[in-house]
Amino acid sequence: MKIQLSDHFSYGRLLRFVLPSIVMMIITSIYSVVDGLFVSNYVGTVPFAALNLVYPMLMGLSALGFMMGTGGSALVSKTLGQGDKAKANRYFSMIVYTTLITGIVLAFLAFVFMRPLSVLLGAKGEAMIADCVLYGRINLLALPAFMLQVSFQSFLVTAEKPRLGLVLSLFAGVTNMVLDFLLVGVLRFGLPGAAWATGISQMVGGFLPFLYFLDSKNSSLLHLGKPSLDVKALVITCTNGSSELMSNLASSLVSVLYNFRLMALAGENGVAAYGVIMYVNFIFAAIFMGYAIGSAPVVGYHYGAEHHDELKNLLNKSLRLVAAAALVLTALSELLARPLTQIFVGYDPELWAFTCHGFQLYSLSFLFSGFNVFGSSFFTALNNGLVSAGISFSRTLLFQVAAVLLLPLVLGVDGIWLAITVAELLCLLVTAGCLVKLRSRYHYA
Q1: What torsion, rounded to 10 degrees, do the Cα atoms 387, 74, 397, 326 define?
Q2: Which of 204, 240, 254, 417 could be 361's S-S partner, Cβ–Cβ 3.0 to 4.6 Å?
Q3: How many helices (H) and strands (E) are present in the chain, helices listed first?
Q4: How far apart are CA 123 and CA 53, in angstroms?
């Protein structure tokens, strides 16, 4: 039976509805993981470190796609809940075309200035700088498509087509893995091969849903029509999605800071170890992100329809599910730290031991991060971008920057690995405070 946004959600129905989004986010996170796996094992430490230096910038540029997707889906789902399907489709079309045009502009500018950007990101030596420029410029060719892909992850859920989103993401992910195997593992094209594998798969993931929504005969709630500018709706979209923009930009900036600190304290091995930890973190964090993306349109719909009892139901069930996931993921990350890091850097015993130790400390953050990801997304879905952005800003920038700058002064490299856990714990207090303070305003408690 098809699950609709207007339904009452039991645990089973909620999990079935968000599961495609969770898998979709995991597949998206695999892009960098597969690249890193092949580059680390087939190309070498310097290209692997270069990839890890450039990737945060690429994710930072794609953050606008996350903003437009999450902020736009909050507005569109609320409008659907209010019963105005025609207006919802006008908003949807405007947001998609704005995302595409902005992606083209950002890609062009970053392509031109890729070399100085690589130096700013911490690349040292001509070999590493050249690798950063090469990998970055190839990936920038696909940036507009990648921005569409991440925005459609939210819109496909709003269109009541989460399974289609899963299929499209799975196809893109498989494309990436197959091309990495062929171009890097078999044909030995090295770092350019990994970059082309990612870029082509992102084009697949971005343009296929674009073509689907262009088809006026598609069976979803949303269709791409003639674009028209609505400045007020665009501002609301950007405001709603500002937390996701802040979260992704801040994560990219903090990753750059981590790399700088690790380069100073541990050299290229530090950057390589952080890259491996981030790959595993991407997959685990994708579970929380996928749940947030999958549940947000449901929250937005019932908020627009003023179904207060269902909002309370969704919040209570979500908090319990996040708590269960937090315990399971933390336990798994501790148990799997050694075999997971072995896959990436097992060829170097010293680097492997260093990475494994760092991952065991870093993974304690999973106890708290899910609540903060969901809390920010929950307020985005309620069209309260200010509170959502405040949670994201505290979590991804304010507390992390302070922790990564201060803790190493006392704990050395271990302070860098523990910085994320301290930041997530402090942000959890902020998230809990916002949920308690605003409960009477939104009638979810």
Answers
A1: 100
A2: 417
A3: 18, 0
A4: 7
Confidence of residue 209 (pLDDT cuts 50, 70, 90): very high
Query: What does DSSP assign to residue 380?
Result: H
3-state SS, one letter per residue, for 79-111: HHHCCCHHHHHHHHHHHHHHHHHHHHHHHHHHH
For residue 29, pLDDT over 80 is answered with: no
Instruction: Tell me which DSSP letter residue 398 carries.
Output: I
CA angle 148, 153, 156 (to 5 degrees): 105
Cα(135)–Cα(296) distance, integer angstroms: 34
Chain CA centroid to CA 438, Å: 26
Residue that has been written with the tokens 């937390």 in this structure: 243
The contacts of residue 92 (CB under 8 Å, 6+ apart) are 72, 76, 155, 213, 222, 223, 224
Give the Cα separation of 179 and 23 in Å (integer): 20
Tell me the pLDDT tens digit for each residue of 136-161. 999 999 999 999 998 998 899 889 89
Where do we find the tokens 């100073």? 264
Decide if 366 contacts 287 (C-beta within 8 A). Answer: no
Which of 388 and 323 is assigned the larger pLDDT? 323
d(CA 266, CA 60): 25
Per-residue pLDDT band for 36 (boundaries 50, 70, 90) equals confident
Residues 27 and 169: beta-carbon distance below 8 Å: yes
| C-alpha–C-alpha distance, residues 277 and 262, integer Å | 13
Calculate the CA dihedral of residues 219, 220, 224, 230 and round it to 10 degrees. Answer: 150
Model confidence, pTM:
0.75
Contact in structure between 74 and 213 (CB atoms under 8 Å): no
Both tokens assigned to 264: 């100073």
50-108 per-position pLDDT tens digit: 887 888 789 889 889 989 998 899 899 899 989 899 999 999 999 999 999 999 999 99
User: For residues 391 and 376, is the Cβ–Cβ distance under 8 A?
Assistant: yes
Distances (CA, A) of 112 to 60, 116, 196, 197: 17, 9, 18, 22
> Any idea which of 143-152, 166-175, 365-374 has the lowest mean pLDDT?
166-175
Neighbour count for residue 312 (Cβ, 10 Å):
16
Q: Are 194 and 180 within 8 A, CB to CB?
A: yes
Cβ(405)–Cβ(397) under 8 Å? no
Ranking 187-201, 278-292, 301-315 by mean pLDDT, the lowest is 278-292
